Amino acid sequence: MIVLVINAGSSSLKFQLYQMKDESVLAKGRVERIGMESAIVTIEPTGKPEVREVREILEHTTAIRKVLDMIVHPEHGVLKSVSEIDAVGHRVVHGGESFSSSVLVTEEVKREIKRLFDLAPLHNPAHMLGIHAVEANMPEVPQAVVFDTAFHQTMPPVSYLYPIPMVLYKKHKIRRYGFHGTSHAYVSEQAAKFLGRPLEELKLVTCHIGNGASCTAVDGGKSIDTSMGMTPLEGLMMGTRSGDIDPAIVPFTMAKEDLTLSEVNSMLNKHSGLLAISNIGSDMREIAEAMEAGDRNAALAFEMYEYRLRKYIGSYAAAMNGLDAIVFTAGVGENSALLRAAVCRGLSFLGIEFDEEANARRSPDDRAITKPGSRVQVLVIPTNEELVIARDTYGLILNRNDVE
Ligand SMILES: Nc1ncnc2c1ncn2[C@@H]1O[C@H](COP(=O)(O)OP(=O)(O)O)[C@@H](O)[C@H]1O
Ligand SMILES: CC(=O)OP(=O)(O)O
Ligand SMILES: [Mg+2]
């Protein structure tokens, strides 16, 4: 079975094409700058050179059409015909309280994702465009949706409720949902495998540190708390998002700076975090380079980022009354030895015996960056959200065929 995995954003669309027989990636790629005159389409067919094209792509239906054309292109394509694609799986960021696992797309599922637009205005409308674009180009192909929030549906009320009037939860579902669940679930399972212990016995803190960042307390394989909340703005300091701040700052800033709601929203989501403090950028590589060169703002941004992450890890050890391992994953977590070192040095009281050398030299197969006897292990595990989406989609299709 061949599964196409799609992660549609408002102006971009990433994809991976899987042969499920051996879970191999046939091709992957992305369309960037959708809606602009010079959109960039990139495809990396496995075993062949990358192909790049710049052209006008004004909306998602055209973007998917272009991706499909490239997949079946006589030279750099990997399939003979689009009809070889058996199913499409989409990443959907917000599943609210309605979805605690992945589902096949139906009219009802689409209505529900639409109802959640309010809760994830930056993400869900774009995912819906992706679903419609696939319908327009491949009307016969079944689609599945895999939610970032699903894994966190096991959180108890004590961690998912906000201490604000209960009526707001009842009327508007204002509560904490958490995100990056696919990634937190995947690296938890991988960590248990690596440690050679049943997941049900482990207390883990998984740190998904990419552009967006969140950490999760995974107790016995279940998410019991996570740093993102009703939206992906709460929690850790991120590339351009503030993470936790005093909510009183919102009305105060609106009054003092004469800002509209949408302007404050944009300030907290797009102009805060590493970018705001460093005045350089949101990319950890740029911050590290500038620090190296002696830039004080970059150093302060890095210290705040690390300090806030370390406090969350400590609080989750307290939430679970114990800790067996910390897992680092995603762009920054997998690649920034500097960040991992700073976090681990500051958590030695937990019984972390950090292995500086393993951390610095880490090759793709290395996992542990603590010494063998360390009471708390620290692991680096590459995430693979696309593979989980492909597997879930495959499973749902097999199940459906069984039922029919
Ligand atoms: N070698 C590296 N060192 C430090 N940070 C890195 C490195 N490579 C990538 N990153 C960071 O990873 C981030 C992207 O992470 P990723 O998980 O791909 O994010 P997203 O899925 O949210 O786009 C970049 O913003 C960059 O800061
Ligand atoms: C939910 C979220 O923050 O996603 P991303 O990290 O892809 O922005
Ligand atoms: Mg990501």
UniProtKB/TrEMBL annotation:
Catalytic-site annotation from UniProt: D148 (proton donor/acceptor)
GO molecular-function terms, A-Z: acetate kinase activity; ATP binding; magnesium ion binding
Cofactor: Mg(2+); Mn(2+)
GO BP terms, alphabetized: acetate metabolic process; acetyl-CoA biosynthetic process
EC number: 2.7.2.1
Family: Belongs to the acetokinase family.
Xref: InterPro entries: Ac/propionate_kinase (IPR004372), Aliphatic_acid_kin_short-chain (IPR000890), Aliphatic_acid_kinase_CS (IPR023865), ATPase_NBD (IPR043129)
Residues with site note (Transition state stabilizer): H180, R241
A Pfam family the protein falls into: Acetate_kinase
Subunit organization: Homodimer.
Record's cofactor remark: Mg(2+). Can also accept Mn(2+).
Binding, ATP: K14, H208, I209, G210, N211, G212, D283, M284, R285, G331, V332, G333, E334, N335
Tagged with keyword Hydrolase: no
Pathway: Metabolic intermediate biosynthesis; acetyl-CoA biosynthesis; acetyl-CoA from acetate: step 1/2
Protein name from the UniProt record: Acetate kinase
Residues annotated for Mg(2+) binding in this entry: N7, E385
GO CC entries: cytoplasm
Entries under PROSITE patterns matching the protein: ACETATE_KINASE_1
Coiled coil: none
Binding site for substrate: R91
Role this protein plays: Catalyzes the formation of acetyl phosphate from acetate and ATP. Can also catalyze the reverse reaction.
Taxonomic source organism: Paenibacillus mucilaginosus 3016
Localization terms from the record: Cytoplasm
Primary localization class, coarse: cytoplasm
UniProt entry keywords in alphabetical sequence: ATP-binding, Cytoplasm, Kinase, Magnesium, Metal-binding, Nucleotide-binding, Transferase
Catalyzed reaction equations: acetate + ATP = acetyl phosphate + ADP
